[in-house]
Design brief:
single chain, 311 residues, eight-stranded antiparallel sheet, globular
């Protein structure tokens, strides 16, 4: 099997025993934006973007704007009417040509769309020549309604970054209660990808100030993230605080355990351990004041976690 997959992704399929299923899922990977997806993009207010910086470290970030800030003028191009804040870890990378992985996600309808390509600055935004366009399932997305206004979080003004190479106690507590994060990876040639991870609070485990772990649940069988990690262990996470509008950005390396049985984590097909090497916390990235989450009915239970209402 070859198709749209690189060697790391094919090896991930082999280790997971997903050869036939992955081949079928691969038919959903396109290089063009269909009309229904182009219409979806025009209503979005949030885009996840991931890329490798000049050192090869992979970071993930969020770009936001009013409905219409994303537009597909043709089937192979995405226009983004936003740029990152100056202190964003990808600001310098996206100031020039860059390979980017992107995810447009609409939490209130649990719809998402994945796109990868080559970005370049274009006026006050970005223009991306698309290589891959992938529709993803709604599993593990917590339903949230964004605030009506697109105002930034309570800090306002230019973002002031808080940086480090380890997680503070406050950041550890925040991550331990998270139900959503986004992960960026890249293959050995730098082609980037961005993906969603979700679960009940506690699914993202904080093992140490520089080490996290999360379960890899049953998904679309493509294993694009895990395939990238087999050929390039560098990865980036961005974790949104929907209440305050701040975002926590992490870079580091990730390792997958392909037989998670000994861990006793419900629903885990595999486990991913992430070693933190860089931390950037930014205020005012998102509009603040999203609605409380309605947890996905697909979320497995978390050991020691409370019973949560799901829809």
């Amino acid at each position: 099997m070859t198709g749209p997959y690189h060697r790391g992704e094919r090896e991930a399929h082999r280790r997971a025993g997903l050869g036939e299923e992955a081949e079928v899922s691969g038919r959903a990977i396109r290089d063009t934006v269909p009309p229904v997806a182009a219409a979806f993009l025009t209503t979005q207010r949030l885009l996840v973007a991931g890329a490798a910086d000049s050192r090869g470290d992979v970071w993930a970030t969020l770009l936001t704007g009013p409905a219409g800030f994303l537009r597909a003028p043709d089937e192979r191009t995405l226009e983004i009417g936003a740029r990152t804040a100056p202190d964003d870890p990808l600001a310098s990378t996206l100031a020039g040509p860059a390979r980017v992985g992107m995810l447009a996600i609409e939490a209130d309808t649990r719809r998402r769309m994945r796109m990868n390509g080559h970005a370049r600055p274009d006026g006050d935004g970005l223009r991306v020549a698309l290589d891959q366009v992938v529709a993803n399932c709604p599993k593990y997305i917590q339903k949230r309604t964004p605030p009506e206004a697109d105002a930034p979080g309570p800090h306002g003004g230019p973002a002031r970054a808080r940086t480090g190479d380890r997680l503070t106690p406050e950041q550890q507590r925040f991550l331990a209660g998270a139900d959503t994060f986004f992960v960026a990876t890249a293959d050995e040639d730098g082609h980037a990808d961005a993906s969603h991870r979700g679960g009940n609070p506690g699914f993202l485990q904080v093992l140490a100030p520089d080490r996290l772990r999360w379960p890899d649940y049953t998904g679309n069988a493509m294993l694009l993230t895990l395939g990238n990690l087999l050929v390039n262990p560098r990865a980036g996470l961005v974790v949104p605080d929907y209440a305050t509008g701040s975002t926590l950005h992490l870079t580091g390396t990730a390792h997958t355990t392909w037989d998670p049985g000994a861990a006793g984590i419900p629903g885990a097909q595999r486990l991913v351990d992430f070693t933190v090497t860089g931390v950037v916390e930014l205020p005012g990235t998102l509009p603040a004041g999203w609605s409380p989450p309605a947890y996905s009915r697909f979320n497995p239970a978390v050991p020691g976690g409370a019973s949560l209402p799901a829809v």
